[in-house]
Design goal:
This protein is α+β, with helices and mostly antiparallel strands. It has 3 domains: 81 residues; 63 residues, SH3 type barrels; 83 residues, Alpha-Beta Plaits (2-Layer Sandwich), CATH 3.30.70. The chain is 55% helix and 20% strand. It is built from 7 helices and 8 strands; from the N terminus they run αααααββββββαββα. The strands form 2 sheets. The protein has a 5-stranded antiparallel beta sheet. Strands 6-8-7 form a 3-stranded antiparallel beta sheet. The protein is elongated, with a radius of gyration of 38 Å. The protein starts with a helix and ends in a 15-residue tail after the last helix. The C terminus is likely disordered. One of its GO terms (cellular component) is plasma membrane. Keywords: Cell membrane, Membrane, Transmembrane, Transmembrane helix. It comes from Trichococcus palustris. This is Mechanosensitive ion channel mscs transmembrane-2. It is found in: Cell membrane.
């Protein structure tokens, strides 16, 4: 046997030894694992997490029940407006959820053995750096607090904020949600809310203008308008003031109008305006009084 053959044989034996030794090492490592201890830890922590989640959901449901019951009692005894009740309830409910989820996260990390003190120390340093760029966030919180404190608007109010016109859906310490009448949902950071036009706080005006010809018998118009008012106004308790009959107005360019003003509960002004305008016009035409059409034309003589 030559020298090359001897070397090849030696190399083959070394490879075989390594191949045999590798599974043995893997088996020894596998056998060295304390599976009983690991399974015990997994079961212990799993049960602890299960009990924590169970307690969390029980306390959360109990807190929501007590909160709802307390608010329902307050709205009955102190006659709180429904919109105001909904606004405050949502804010308190959100704050309660934040508290519960904070303690839930704290409990989970504690069970898993995460060093919370180290995380809090790191969070403090990171928070200082982040806080330098969080001025808008703080401004959102401050502005949201004053919106709620001063009751500038409540959930369900019809508001106009800048170019956005719609209904308040939700009020939070950071953002306010407004739903436009076309269904668009707007999320407004509170620091961007400066001028607010709340269209839901006071009685609203319903203005009825009836276009007439200059040679119309206005005494007959007044009598007809009064008849319609006597018949319809008692049927609509949403009218809180009026009708105030202003009478004849010169609109310019030969245009004459007969004006009547109502004040109604918020949100009812358009219904009253349309109803009375239609009723006035039908009654006037039934009395033979001509109503001009557009473009404005004088009746033929």
């Amino acid at each position: 046997m030559n020298e090359a053959s001897i070397q090849d044989s030696s190399l083959t034996q070394d490879v075989l030894k390594e191949v045999v030794a590798s599974p043995n090492a893997l088996i020894r490592w596998w056998d060295s694992i304390d599976w009983a201890n690991i399974i015990g830890i997994l079961i212990s922590k799993g049960l602890s997490l299960f009990l924590l989640l169970l307690v969390f959901f029980i306390l959360k449901r109990a807190a929501r029940y007590l909160l709802r019951r307390t608010f329902n009692k307050q709205i009955l005894t102190k006659h709180v407006a429904q919109n105001r009740y909904t606004t405050i309830y949502k804010i308190v409910e959100n704050g309660l959820n934040y508290v519960f989820f904070f303690f839930l996260l704290y409990g989970i990390l504690s069970i898993l053995g995460v060093p919370i003190a180290t995380l809090l120390a790191g969070a403090g340093i990171a928070g200082l750096a982040i806080g330098l760029g969080a001025q808008e966030f703080i401004s959102d919180i401050v502005n949201g607090f004053f919106i709620i404190l001063e009751s500038q608007f409540d959930v369900g109010d019809h508001v106009r904020i800048g170019e956005i016109d719609g209904t308040i859906v939700s009020i939070g310490l950071r953002t306010t949600q407004v739903k436009s009448f076309d269904g668009t949902q707007h999320f407004l950071p509170n620091h961007t809310i400066t001028i607010i036009s709340n269209l839901s706080r006071n009685d609203m005006r319903a203005l009825v203008d009836i276009q007439l010809f200059p040679d119309t018998d206005f005494d007959k118009v007044s009598a007809t308008i009064q008849t319609v008012n006597d018949r319809l106004v008692p049927q609509h308790p949403e009218i809180v003031k009026g009708p105030n009959v202003i009478g004849i107005l010169d609109k310019g360019n030969g245009m004459i109008a007969y004006r009547v003003i109502f004040y109604t509960l918020n949100g009812e002004q358009y219904l009253i305006q349309n109803l009375f305008l239609k009723s006035y016009m039908n009654a006037l035409m039934a009395e033979g009084i001509q109503i001009p059409t557009h473009p404005f034309t004088f009746p033929a003589k």
